[in-house]
Amino acid sequence: MLRTITVAAGVLTACGPLERHEPVWVTIPHGASVEVVAESLATYQLVSSPGSFRWFAKFNGATNSLKPGTYRLHAGMSPAAILEELLAGAPLRETLFIPDGSWVNETAWYVERQLGVAADSFNAVVYDSGVVAQVSATGVSLEGYLFPGEYRIRVGATAREVVFVLLEEFERQWQPAWTRRLDTLGMTRDELITLASIVEGEGGVDEDLPFIASVYHNRLENGMRLQADPTVVYALGQRRRLFNADYELDSPYNTYQIEGLPPAPISSPSAAAIEAALYPEETDFLYFVAAENGQHVFSRSYREHLDTIRQLRDK
Fold first, then answer.
1. How many domains does the chain have?
2. Confidence of residue 15 (pLDDT cuts 50, 70, 90)
3. In which domain, by residue range, is 306 found?
4. Do residues 223 and 284 both lie within one domain?
5. Residue 48's pLDDT band (boundaries 50, 70, 90)?
6. 153 and 204, same structural domain?
7. Are 267 and 103 in contact (CB under 8 A)?
8. What confidence tier does 12 reach under pLDDT thresholds 50, 70, 90?
9. DSSP alpha helix (H) spans, 237-283
């Protein structure tokens, strides 16, 4: 059991850019003094100053008890929570990387390949209705909520542990201002994540994402079908080139055939895609097409859109 950490009121506070929600990996080498540790924590803006953390560790009798290892910390942790982590010691960890826009079945494959956790066990948690209900998702799985990125996962972690690390990161990335923004947009969080997953699926450069989002917002407002290719790919269940017949696929996810948004997200969007869906550029664009360089060209009318396609093909 960990010792009880005593906090002297008003002496030490967490600091740093609290809007940063990404994890901060701090490595404590063998033989590192509390001075070195304090400097490292201050460099990452996890504590207010090296001197205050040194005093705090000494106050709690922990000057010579900090354990080496690589720790997953984050801005906003209290000094007591940080010290408790450093006293407990860091377990051996493995790296897990989930690319932006991954589907849940792809995430399960990454988890199995990188961590050795069976994909079937991972999917059993991902499709657990009780777990799905915890994030208020409307789909049958946690699609959209397994936040992409790089993680350091405890060696020997269970499928459930891995799933909840990804869910925890999603909640850490989600900002209070985003919840307030949902009211302005008149959308639920699940609807927003669904839209963001479509924006993510269009790919391209990050600078284009708010413009892509504006096209879909404009289409929703005008009662137009979204006609988003990534939804057809998702409905097919395989990432491949689309053919004309694919657009006729009868699926609630095929936005060439349905009105409005699909019933649930189609992938796990990045923070950039989520923010773009929340704060789209104010435009009157209704169409876009990808150029060879990965950037998109936007149009206000179908005629303009067709002209753009011809121009790109003639280059």
1. 3
2. very low
3. 176-314
4. yes
5. confident
6. no
7. yes
8. very low
9. 271-278
